[in-house]
Write a structure and sequence with these properties.
The chain is an all-alpha fold. It is built from 19 helices and no strands. The protein has helices at residues 2-32, 41-58, 68-88, 98-110, 130-141, 146-162, 169-177, 180-187, 192-208, 211-214, 216-227, 234-246, 250-265, 269-272, 286-289, 296-310, 316-341, 344-349, 362-370. The protein is globular. It starts with a helix and ends with a helix.
């Protein structure tokens, strides 16, 4: 009985903490991108949580959120509005170059030009790893790499719909729709959140469909391919894979490790060597591009904590909460470091700290909030 009570309170605390981070991240977006300067910060701090909580409770009335029609309506609304934003916002006026990092890379590849090294529309260089770039290449051929974003959302909503008995899918998708951080991603054509949504689906499938035990080597290949998209996916993947990996027999460990390495390295090979190769040009090497910020000692400390936490989690909720928490802490540590060197206003409104990276933790916290 004591174990049951302890587990109950742990679940309650994780849910409360998840709500807190969800609101905190979205309040940062409300404050930074407040369209009306006459609206004071204090009003936003009160109004946004009150609005979200009111809508959340209102849709709970008569179990509206449990309806399949409600889920389909919200999903269709999100996809339609995302499509309209993509077509009515001039992408060249957006002060974020994630879309052009994908589009210009794909255009070069189509024309037989070495894809890495071409500046984006803001003068930076593409940071996504080859698998994520190649994933968007077919959408570029269709006319816009932004279609890849819509595709990821559609697949994610289908996944949520078919697993809505395992978690409150209506509540999950509603909170996503009420997230200013999510709509920022859609407005600027950012691919960051969609990358993590795919990882979320993959990791959820580990629990729902026992892919680890049924398809071990395919899991290894997919894990390696995900590691060849963006650096941040390594955190949730490591948290899940490491404790399971330790329990494998030696032969399976070797095969699994080799397949993961192959999934990471093989897509990189065409871009490593030669006069334009990324090994000879650190200025546009995507591995360096994704590790420019952050304190080495903090990263090492977090890694030690992640190793320890990976051996301690017991349930799916534990695991997803830890995944979201470590992602949040990593991004927060960068923000804190910049604040200590400057001030909070510079961190929030300056260009050095990208608050959108907080969005990668949101899917994991939404799971903790909406899990039945």
């Amino acid at each position: 009985m004591n174990l049951l009570i302890t587990g109950f309170y742990k679940d309650k605390l994780m849910k409360i903490f998840s709500w807190g981070i969800y609101l905190f991240v979205n309040l940062i977006f409300c404050i930074k991108y407040n369209p009306a300067s006459e609206v004071k910060v204090l009003y936003l701090l009160i109004a946004y949580p009150l609005l979200v909580w009111s809508i959340f409770k209102l849709t709970q009335y008569k179990d509206i959120r449990k309806s399949s029609y409600f889920f389909i309506f919200v999903a269709a609304f999100i996809l339609l509005l995302a499509f309209l934003l993509m077509h009515y916002i001039d992408k060249y006026t957006v002060d974020v170059d994630r879309w052009s990092a994908l589009a210009f890379w794909s255009e070069n590849l189509k024309n037989g030009v070495f894809p890495y090294g071409t500046p984006t529309h803001k003068g930076g260089y593409a940071s996504p790893y080859p698998v994520w770039q190649l994933f968007h290449f077919p959408f570029h051929l269709l006319g816009d790499t932004g279609y890849g974003q819509l595709f990821c959302l559609f697949i994610f909503f289908v996944f949520l719909y078919f697993n809505r008995k395992r978690l409150a899918g209506g509540a999950f998708i509603l909170l996503l729709a009420l997230s200013p951080g999510f709509w920022w991603e859609m407005s600027v054509r950012s691919d960051l959140l969609c990358n993590m949504l795919l990882v979320y689906m993959f990791l959820s499938s580990m629990f729902y469909y026992q892919l680890w035990s049924k398809h071990l080597y395919w899991t290894a290949i997919v894990t390696g391919l995900f590691l060849c998209t963006k650096m941040l996916v390594a955190m949730p993947l490591f948290l899940f894979v490491f404790p399971h990996f330790l329990r494998l027999a030696t032969k399976k460990k070797i095969c699994f490790a080799l397949l993961v390495v192959a999934g990471v390295v093989v897509p990189f090979i065409p871009f490593l060597f030669g006069g334009h190769g990324i090994l000879n040009h650190p200025e546009y090497n995507p591995m360096f591009q994704q590790t420019r910020q952050g304190n080495m000692w903090i990263v090492m400390a977090l890694f030690v904590l992640i190793v320890f936490a990976s051996l301690r989690w017991k349930t799916m909720r534990n695991y997803f909460f830890l995944s979201g928490l470590f992602l949040f802490l990593l991004i927060a540590s960068v923000g804190i470091e910049i604040t200590l060197s400057n001030d909070i206003y510079y961190t929030l409104f300056g260009d050095e700290f990208d608050i959108s990276y907080f969005n990668v933790s949101i899917p994991f916290f939404l799971f903790c909030i909406t899990k039945k």
